[in-house]
Amino acid sequence: MPKRGENIRKRKDGRWEGRYITGYGKNGKAKHQSIYGKSYFETKRKLLQAKEKLIAGVLPDSCKSMSFREVLFLWLDNRRIKLRPQTYAKYFQMIEKHLAETIGGHKISKIDASYLNNFIEEKLNHGRLDKNGGLSISYVKTLVFIIRSAMEFAVTQGYRQPLRGEIGELPKKKVDYPVFTLDEQLRLERYIHSNTDTAKLGVLICFYTGLRIGEICGLKWSDIDFRQNILSVRRTVYRLANQDGCEGEPKTKLIVGEPKTISSYRSIPVPSYLLPLLHEYKESSLSEWVVSDDGFGFIDPRTYQYRFQRYLQDCAIPKRNFHAIRHCFASRCIEVGVDIKSLSEILGHASANITLNTYVHSTMEHKRGQIELLETIRGSK
Asked: Looking at the predicted structure, is the pLDDT value of residue 129 above 50?
């Protein structure tokens, strides 16, 4: 009896037939070829030989003419079920903007490592669509990930042979994220307390919990347990490209979806300092959302970002991204002695290394205080 998954069967005419994939059409549909034998074992041997021949370099004509553009979109469709909607939309947009009409026009079987490295260097130096310089290293790293993954997919599907040579590593660049000084943070808090509303309350919550902007926009009053003083992150709000929209419809749409990762589902102790304010606003709120736009619905993260910039301007604080609050929270926690494992879980990271390498910034005040500790040596002497 043939084993499951071998694609070998006995025909009505007494012969054995083995089928294998030789490539894929433009619509992603598999193309098969058959070989025949007098017995199951003869057919199995012929089937193995045919597959080895395919891997060794005898590519079907349909694969030889396939463009990298086709492969990129087949790879993306193949991964769709594994990707978060916003990640899928991000990859789709990057492929359309930077890969499909350039490198995508080449035959998949003809692309080599040298060409890919030149293409990546070009993106780093002159990749911006407005012709004003190159793309950021982090953006190009994502492009490289897409290219590598699509090339590996092409090899496993029999579209081409393994890539000869290696795609070069991109230079590492340390990004210094601007963190609020203690004076700036206190100035902003005084401003919030002087004329509080739900939007300003959300900023205050983020300063003491480290929530992302999408998470605070998706926070409901039911997510706050006032008996145990715990806040639970269960959803996030994000803007997604409206790929299925008809002409005349908005290019993007707002989605209330699941948190960023499995680790992002988390419970955070609420500082006692915030509890009276939260109680007060919960009692008077007509909305289920903690930060509401019109008094009832949730707020658009983009709108919230604009409001945050107004708050900074009113406080004479330099322009910062909303995400700087999260960096500030992590740094303050380290400064006051919060252990890295607890901080990592509060931030919703998969590991403490992510927290240390990405979110912990030592302010100049803190560095100065650490250096002053050297004075204790003189005292001991």
From this structure: yes
